[in-house]
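ok trying again, last paste got cut off:
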Amino acid sequence: MEDRIRTCLVSFQFWPRVGGAEAQAEKQARQLQALGHIVIVVTLRHERRWKRSETLDGLPVVRVGGIYKRGETLRLGRLGHLPIDIGMFLTLWRLRHRYDVIHVFQVSPLAAAAALVGKLAHKPVIISVQSTGPSDTQRAQIEQGVMLMADTLTNSSFLKIDFMDCASASGDLTYLPQTAFGGGAILNFLRKSNAYYQILSNRGYPYLTSRGFRAEQIVRISNGIDTKKLRPAPALRPDLTKPERDIICVARMDYAKGIDVLLHAWGRLMHATVEWHGNLKPRLRLVGDGILKPQMERFVAELGIQDSVEFLGLRTDVVDLLQRSWGFVLPSRWEGMPNALLEAMACGLPCVATRVSGSEDLIIDGVNGLLVEPEQPAEMALALRRIIEDIDLAQRLGQEGRSTVVRDYQLVTVVEQCLDLYRRLLTKGKNALPFRLERKEVGR
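nice, full thing came through this time. structure:
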């Protein structure tokens, strides 16, 4: 292969611990390999028992350690990242002859280490910005003290959460100065570096430029998925003649994902008059884990919805679960480009999501899904009711959602766009022509 490119993908987490960004990193790695390119993944060794390096189904993975707690887990936090950053720098420098380009999947201190290696080794660096973080209003609320939504609850004793836990899961840039020692200097270095920044959605461009990042170094390349693997399975679809209506949500249980808002919406739905659903049996299934899971379980008990809510935890059979579900919901307070929503749409599910970055790029309200404003449980309850009781609407939204993903978000197309960027940067070096930012209008 004449233009075989050797790529180093840097990810904060990787198998066996994964989230949305890490899942996208693995998909991209596998697709690059399928196209004949060479890939190595560098990630963190979050548990001491994990191997420092191994090959996972043909994919080389190198893990960087640091200081470990008594429980043998990697120490992170404001100071914990310093030895990790040094280790990442040394590892990337040691491996520099094995790759041509570095692609980092989060903005973090690790990205700064990669950008520094890229500068010293004359290697192009691309940094993916996974989230646009909270809005100005949400940031103001967070800084005053973070509370989960009370809505109809009278007991608020369990609703307050730790600011730093919230900040660490917010935006890639918003709270970097607070969550990492020297975060302000790291952010300033990234602004001035030669790295290119991959944004996933329309809101990504103003999010970066308003924080001092240079427009000519920003390129929009969305997430993509394998629509051959993620597709409707007619044999598994719910029987329309039966009353079961399983709504699935696949998301981390942290503040940004808004699971508390969803539970309030579900409570409103289930406590409404029974006439609306007749003999239907709606059930909410939550896939995922996270720091707020105990509070979410408390919500279910306080709202009296134990009989219709199921916590499934982390699962490896998400595709099967999607294909067996009636619909999908994502109640995020903010996003970047949610893989879970892409996957649900690819499986032909009618989807309800909030009008946030990424979700609003994917969904045209009433055409290929339903959009509601974030943190509005009453509005979300009505949208869920629509897809549960209106079979024709649910089927139409599911079909149009699948068509949208097949047309615009194929994994192979996204990876080819990345390869095009790699080639430009490798061919032109520092004089590479910047990508023209393709800004798709919302509701295109």
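cool. The first strand starts at residue 6 and ends at 11. The domain at 6-134+170-224+410-431 is CATH 3.40.50.2000 (Rossmann fold).
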